[in-house]
DNA sequence: TATCTAATATTAGATAGCTAACAATTAATG
DNA sequence: CATTAATTGTTAGCTATCTAATATTAGATA
């Protein structure tokens, strides 16, 4: 087994071809999660909260629906995360424009403070992750991932159109 | 927003640099999961079972410990998955070589049968995922992912050596 | 205005992953 | 041989995600 593939086990190579990429992506996602979590946990922010905070730091005052869409998470997931974040004092949730349905989330001073504390940690995690990759390799990596995401989203949409109910992906499957 | 980035939301570009890759990897892993699950579900095999089946198809009779390591999942996870797979008749679990600790898993005829039924579905999912990527792009994608995985594993190991307890990644964070 | 439809949020329940603690067996050591 | 350490498996309990079903409000239409 060569150096480059040190971390890849036999189950990845039992088939030549593309199957292996699914495995690599899964492991990379797991690694990113854990690397970020090591750092974020020092500030007592969970990974899910981090996702929503990042979106709010860029655009404060989004509704729960908008947040769940941008985070690519379901509404109940956003709901419980936002409730928790309000309890922790990172955000407040309230209606705006006289619309009693939409619940908008607004960062508190503490929520903004977290940005300065947490972002350097995340940047560090990502610099570590791509160490040793050239700019060109990183560019192709980004492009390839974006293409795959689009392909897979279309695949899921096609299945939905064909009436195939997309089964739940519960638990922690991407680890 | 250009075509290539259609599926990427604003939270990905709020920082130039590497952070975006973590996001792309997460979304790609999610897409792979769902794409596979759409297909596997037609045969009533969960994603977790699929992971262990793939390993057994390549090397039958592995112990629970070996299976959990190759799958990059914890032992309790392997344990419950294997118990379930035995109930479903895909494998049998038994001791070998007079060692009463090790529980080895052996595929049943039904377990082997699943290989022929499921592998084409997974190959299809992966062909869809990488459609539009040249062979060279796929090669660089594989290499880049492998490098990142190694970097992130080393990062986690370093943290462990420094005495940083790696916090759990519960729930479904990679979605 | 009244009624229907769409949008949004909430609640309830299920599940696969995780950690931690325990049990049982095997190997190592005095 | 007895005791300790290492290995392996098991059980218990937690949690973030998901789907499904429900409630509430806003908008559209007769």
TrEMBL record, chains A, B:
Gene3D superfamilies assigned: Winged helix-like DNA-binding domain superfamily/Winged helix DNA-binding domain
Keywords, comma-separated and alphabetical: DNA-binding, Transcription, Transcription regulation
InterPro entries in alphabetical order: HTH_MarR-typ (IPR000835), WH-like_DNA-bd_sf (IPR036388), WH_DNA-bd_sf (IPR036390)
Any GO molecular function: DNA binding
Domain HTH marR-type: start-end pairs: 18-150
UniProt-recorded name of the protein: DNA-binding transcriptional regulator, MarR family
Annotated signal sequence range: none
Classification via SUPFAM superfamilies: Winged helix' DNA-binding domain (SSF46785)
Pfam family, one: MarR_2
Record flagged with keyword Transcription: yes
Record keyword Transcription present: yes
């Amino acid at each position: 087994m060569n150096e480059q593939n040190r971390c890849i086990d036999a189950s990845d190579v039992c088939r030549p071809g593309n199957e292996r990429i699914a495995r690599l992506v899964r492991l990379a996602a797991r690694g990113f999660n854990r690397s970020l979590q090591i750092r974020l946990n020092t500030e007592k922010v969970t990974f899910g909260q981090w996702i929503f905070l990042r979106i709010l730091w860029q655009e404060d005052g989004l509704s729960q629906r908008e947040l769940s869409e941008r985070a690519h998470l379901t509404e109940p997931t956003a709901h419980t995360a936002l409730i928790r974040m309000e309890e922790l004092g990172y955000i407040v949730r309230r209606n705006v424009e006289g619309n009693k349905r939409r619940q908008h989330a607004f960062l508190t001073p503490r929520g903004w403070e977290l940005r300065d504390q947490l972002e350097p940690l995340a940047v560090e995690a990502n610099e570590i992750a791509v160490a040793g990759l050239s700019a060109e390799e990183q560019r192709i990596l980004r492009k390839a991932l974006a293409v795959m995401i689009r392909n897979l989203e279309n695949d899921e949409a096609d299945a939905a159109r064909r009436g195939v109910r997309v089964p739940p992906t519960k638990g922690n499957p991407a680890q």
